[in-house]
Amino acid sequence: MQQWARFAILGAMFVVAYLLILAWQKDYGHADTTKTQPAAVVAHDVSADLPNGQTTAASSDVPQANIAAAQQPTTAPATANQQLISVQTDLYHLWISPKGGDIVRIELLNHDQSKNSDEPFVMLESDSKRTYVAQSGLIGLNGPDSSRAGRPNYEFEKTAYTLADLKDVKDKDGKTVKVLTVPMVFKTADGVEIIKSFNFKQGNYPIEVSYQVVNRSAQNWQGQMFGQLKRDNSEDPGKSDQGIFTLGTFLGGAWGTPDEHYNKLKFANFTEEKLDQQAKGGWVAMVQHYFVSAWIPGHFGGQEYTAKLESRKSADGMNIIGFTSPTINVPAGKAMSIDATFYAGPKIQSELKDLAVGLNQTVDYGWLWPIAKLLFMGLQMFHNVVGNWGWSIILLTILVKLILWPLSSKSYRSMAKMRVIAPEMQRMKEEFGEDRMRFSQEMMALYKREQVNPLSGCLPLLLQMPIFLALYWVLMESVELRHAPWMLWIQDLSAMDPWFILPLLMGVTMFVQQSLNPQPADPMQAKVFKIMPIMFTVFMLFFPAGLVLYWIVNNSITILQQWFINKSVEKDRLKREAA
What stretches pass through the bilayer (predicted)? Predict the structure, then answer.
């Protein structure tokens, strides 16, 4: 029975290791060792910064309307002015192309490109090295983006907007908010005026993109709004590089509806298993490590509309995921508006959950998400008090140990009794020799008399396995812990310890903890268990420092707990023998 308990513990430890290796590779392809920083958008030289698909030749990027384009709109002469429009808020700096009104670059000002860089993280960009843009427009019978002349060229008031352009506006709840509005105008020769507006709220990542169609022509105007994300197959710039290991999370498309909250779609499946859904209250997104960009269809005529969610590949191999609204009709002499919300920024759960159902699940904690969410809530609670994520991990570990204390104490007490009766078991083994049946009977009688459960040694590890795996995903997926320092040399809890001190300390604590456990009677098992601390030390060298910190604190508390329990059991046995 004792041998089975040993093998169960050993197997459980290897299961932890195996699951973590799978977690590294899940939803992730081969790493690309070449990392280059694309050139930034240049305000006065935009030829290399415009996204692909802004010419007639690349019209396949524009989604197909669900009505026949029997009539092509008569467009006004295209302007030669291709100056990008710069918009800088308190959260990001972005650039809008007048051709099509696409967002071609976004820099997140509150997030560094890397730990040792003061440059902002580049979320969207379009140049010779990388294409990742947010496109929107009007297609259909009279939509200018369906014109044979290509994407429309919008007129604009000025080329740069800053926080000085913020204005006080009443929101739907009557509260005063500061909003920066960037209007763009396109006019057709037959008297239709299209006003495309980008509305930025101070302190908010979501951007409201709206179209107002003012029909001064003599005929009915028909069209559909679309919004889409276009990205090439380049590597995730937000992934964590951990030496010989690359800790990768999912890179690809995602979508959700009120009925199917969160679905992932790999780039390779954009055509084979392509998205084709009709939904009201849905969303589409592109997900990467720590960050997400998403389109959320909005309202038409004050009502939420049912949009078509779809994915596809462009002729040049670009990955496109987006939505298309129903056909809107604007009678002659009337004006109507339609809008959608665009989000590009960090995966902050509290903000994403308010935008659309399931969008906050892009913070993907895997199949252990209920435990992971509880752990993250605990970390946030402690962080609000101490203001440091490292100390928050330590306090969370103590809290978890206190919760599991009754169960683990019972298990450690049984293991302590195993240590005490080990000499008696060795004597019985020598006495009964090859009579295995008699030895088993005497051993079971001894277990019953001493109230020992030999399998109880598996319980602490089995309890810790889901917590350990869930915390791994919390550290890997929560942008709040990205580049979060602890103290001294640990300046990024989501990355490995650069000096490998924490993994070595973890190995020491694991060795000490093992010495407090009953030692295997079988010499081969004893050797295997002596090697385990070394194996796990090597294994943990490239894990996030925050995860290793959790393991060290957990082992340290366990050592104290086992030491006191061992002393108590030995003392009780001596009293019984004296009596």
Answer: 7-24, 389-408, 452-475, 533-553
Residues in the chain, total: 579
Cα separation values, 166 from 100, 131, 199, 204, 270, Å: 24, 30, 10, 13, 39
**CA–CA dist 457, 10 (Å, integer):** 11
- The 3-state DSSP class for residue 345 equals strand
Cα–Cα distances (Å) from 287 to 266, 282, 284, 355, 555, in that order, read: 10, 16, 10, 16, 35
User: Residue 233 CA to chain centroid, in angstroms?
Assistant: 18
DSSP state letters, 221-276: EEEEEEEEEEE-S---TTPEEETTEEE----EEEEE-SSS--EEE-GGGTTTT--E
DSSP designation for 351: H
Task: Enter the tokens of residue 553.
Answer: 């604190």
Q: What is the DSSP string of 41-104?
A: PBTTB-TTTSPTT-SGGGGGGSPPPSS---SPPPBPPPPS--PPEEEE-SSEEEEE-TBTT-EE
Crossing angle, helix 545-578 and helix 459-477, to 10 degrees? 160
What mean pLDDT is reported for the chain?
79
3-class SS at 433? Answer: coil
Residue owning tokens 């993994």? 503
User: Which residues have C-beta within 8 Å of that of residue 528, sequence separation ≥ 6?
Assistant: 10
Model pLDDT for residues 419-477, shown as the tens digit of each residue: 666 666 667 766 666 767 776 776 777 666 666 666 555 656 677 778 878 887 887 78
In angstroms, the CA 386 to CA 149 distance is 59
Please give the structure tokens belonging to residue 523.
């010499």
C-alpha span between 199 and 209 (Å, rounded): 7
**What's the CA gap between 101 and 189, in Å, rounded?**
20
Measure Cα distances from 486 to 442, 476, 483 in Å. Answer: 53, 16, 10
Q: Quick count: other Cβ atoms within 10 Å of Cβ 506? A: 28
Tell me if residue 318 falls in helix, strand or coil.
coil
Residue with tokens 């601390």: 533
CA–CA dist 349, 221 (Å, integer) = 40
Q: Name all domains of the chain by residue range, CATH numbers in brackets.
A: 41-362 (2.70.98.90), 376-578 (no CATH)
Alpha carbon 13 to chain centroid distance? 27
Q: What is the pLDDT of residues 107-160, one digit of tens each?
A: 999 988 877 778 899 999 998 888 999 999 999 999 999 877 789 999 999 999
Q: At what angle do helices 523-539 and 501-516 cross, to 10 degrees?
A: 160
Q: Helices in 363-521 by DSSP H: which ranges?
A: 369-386, 389-432, 436-450, 459-477, 501-516
Q: What is the DSSP string of 539-573?
A: HGGGS-HHHHHHHHHHHHHHHHHHHHHHHHHHHHH
| The two three-digit tokens of residue 100, written as one number | 């099509």
Q: Which residue has the tokens 């340290």?
A: 556
Gap between the Cα atoms of 471 and 375, Å rounded: 7
pLDDT at 38: 37
